[in-house]
Fold this protein.
Amino acid sequence: MLDQLSAEARERPRDSRRVYRFEYSSIPMLVTLIRGARAVVFPSLYEGFGLPVVEAMQLGTPVVTSSTSSLPEIAGDAALYVNPYDTYQIAQAIRTISADEGLRADLSRRGLVQAELFSMARYRERVAALYERLG
């Protein structure tokens, strides 16, 4: 991970509350980062499905996401919701989820259950049921 940090970031004192921006991250690194995060913050203005939310929940990472588009349907009761246009509300949600270990644990548990609704096994079941009804 350190090799991906900029030289400037490496020179700063270590602070676990710092935000890092990565230009690129391999899939294994991305999985490691998401699993190690206190939360995934995804205040999307428009989202067709919400795959980043499902992926975070599958990894057991709590989610803060938009109260708009498909995201409430995808995340169900397993996320904190924010107005994606309200930066104060987003900041408050980040503070809340960062400070409340119990909330993080609860959202993580609920997220794993919610993400199972979108698993490959569930998808196969729904497609098989559809073909059964059509045939």
